[in-house]
Fold:
Amino acid sequence: MISAWLHKSGPFETLTVLAFVFIPLGISQLAQKHTLLPRFFGVYYFLNLIYYYLLSSPTGIAANKNWLIASLLATSPWAVTFLRQALYQAFRFLPKHFRNSTSTLLSFLFVWTCTLLSLNRLNSRAAWLAFGLVLAYLIFRGSSKFFKKILIFAFVIASISGVIYAKKNFSTLTHNELRPALWKGTAKMIESAPLLGRSGPGQFSNAFPNYRLAEQLMLPISAPNSSHPHNELLKLASEVGLPACLALLCFFLLILKVPGRKNASALHCVLVLSVCAMFDKLLIENATALLFLFSMGLLIPVTKHKSTVKKTLAVRKALGFIIILFGSFIAINQTQASWFHRHGFNDQSAALVSFDAEQK
Structure:
């Protein structure tokens, strides 16, 4: 709030950042959250599939192929649950025990086959990394203590080797790559105002041109990508400062560390989108922000309410519902703006290519 007041950010942009705290807390107040939200996630998954495979939309409803595969990968467990429930109702003519096993197997095979085919076709490096880390986490969680030590040792060795390799081959690996140039420029922006940010919420594009590196201007796609550094933590730190960024990060880590049984599908969604958000703009200009924030809310465990708290339960639920609707309104409007910007840029590029072809 101080950063927004200091830099004269608009209320819409300020509330967009505050929604990262309010929406998870609002979700935690809904009693039926574990039955309603899987349907939302499942519908979102299958809408992307239908648009991508059946309606020949190269980006589904996500406006970008990297956002599309991140959405599909993050919502796959929810889609399995959604499809399993639908198949269970459709197979009423089968015996109950056979109907349950059949619907579970068919939904798992169908959803993950579609997801892996999409991952192979869209070939997003961030999505592959997220998929690998989730697999490693699942293996680690189910391993014995001795095997966990071996996995940790192997991970440390692989990380050190990767850093050494990247350091020796940095110029080759980053040749004609936009993200390293964006990250360097954003780091300079953060260094200039580390406490309260340089631009204020939602104003990154106004301040970043003063810190943009010359090497970025040499890249063919530099201009339309100066509105976001393709790393959500860097963007937040550059807009509102390092203390606010660290506070939000601690808030999310505290949710993950809260004792109690975690929703496995929500945890999977958070892990995938967290990894992909380090290389793209998934949590501000995209509907994937809702997927992330809803999942964070599902990770807050349900507590038994005492008699003194039950009196305010209805008010808290109503307030939570209002916060969720308002946050959803913000995310949908941001997504719509991003969608039209993306399509406008693609139409402009196509027109320029057509014009150059005619001139030749």
In short: The chain is about 75% helix and 0% strand.
